[in-house]
Amino acid sequence: MAQIEDIGQELKAQIKKYDADYLEARLEENQTSHITYRGKELESIGRSTATGGNVRALVKGGWGFASFNDLSDLPGRMKLAVEQARFAGSGESELAEVEPVVDTVSAEAPSNPVIIPLAEKKRLTDEYNEIIWRTPKIRTSSIGYGDGHKKVIFLNSQGSYIVQQRTDITMRFTVIAAENGQVQQAGLSLGNTGDFSEIKNYHRQVEEIARRAVELLSAPQVEGKEYTVVLDPVLAGVFVHEAFGHLSESDFVYENDSLREIMTLGKQFGTTDLNIVDGAAIAGLRGSYKYDEEGVPATKTYLIREGKLVGRLHSRETAARMQEKPTGNARAVSYRYPPIVRMTNTYIEPGSVSFDDMLSDIEEGVYVKNWYGGTTSMEMFTFSAGEAYMIRNGKIAEALRPVVLTGNVFTTLHNIDAIGNDLEMNQGGGCGKGEQAPLPVSNGSPHIRIQHCLVGGR
Q1: Which of 1, 189, 236, 273 would you call most buried, defined as having the most Cβ atoms within 10 angstroms of its Cβ?
Q2: Are residues 199 and 281 in the same domain?
């Protein structure tokens, strides 16, 4: 730990000497441990430490970037990044103004989860795996546990010097059942900001996903058509992240003429009850931090407020180019990559409708929970729900095989006609973009009701 701090102080004294419009450096020490099970067998277990850094230079609008895991020649790395930027630059450098920051930020977790003995983590994983395999008709399963403790030093030629620490834990389960040529699966994803005790008591939930995978083998398949659909907080959170959140990342907007025309600030995208937020300044979540990878303070950014598009997510460069304020959304998954515009904690704010009231006037509809995966292409989306149930006469009825939801995100936002009062955040996910994955994020929502949603079935 002391090594990168000593090097950081040396760089602080040198970084203004280089002939660049802007120069920044990031030094990182990352400790991790992991456990992976495939079926009944332990596949991998271990602990590792990685140390490295990067330098990013801006000259006449061109960027140079050098990453490294050898800290012995940082002046040479800085010179290389500046030379690269000179080759790329042919215009004017634009960065939104940000006050220099000098700060030290501790991790939220009371202790480093990586130092907990691997034997203790394996005992817990073994318990969960044994529960899965007590269930008849299970064909295979997977469990993945991971934790990390990261210390990052950021400094730039404008006077910022920030030391940040963060911890992270994830645990993911997939259970696959099979019988008579039929195959079904169920899953569970967990995550938090580094508290190992929070994942110790999920025995009942693990038993439930194993049982559900088996029950789905005999569940009917829904008739494919448009329904009134109610989404649980997990699937609604994934929807707002994948289908809308990525469209709010301003590098996409700035580089795409058609998207820039669609995503016009002030445009109405939903009812006045609809509010969508992204923000790392919301404490205690996996996407939370105090400063982004450019040293910009975290914010809480309204993307949609009272149904209107009012904001988007920015790095310093995109904010300057679009003449908007930086939002603290420049992020990198590690020192091996330059920061790009990324989401943090993205969610729909709660409304006032109870879950029972949301169901009460639906004669025939579908209730969907959790998710397996999905794809997006501009404003079009397809998501696979992890669980599905018919709604009949205002009540949850029989379980269904998992269903697929398809539509246009902007049409779908307009079709949200009820927003619940029960916000929940899902912290088990990781976001991918530009070959950088998995980036810690969280997403969430209350229950939401969507009219005229296309549900794929038989």
Answers
A1: 236
A2: no
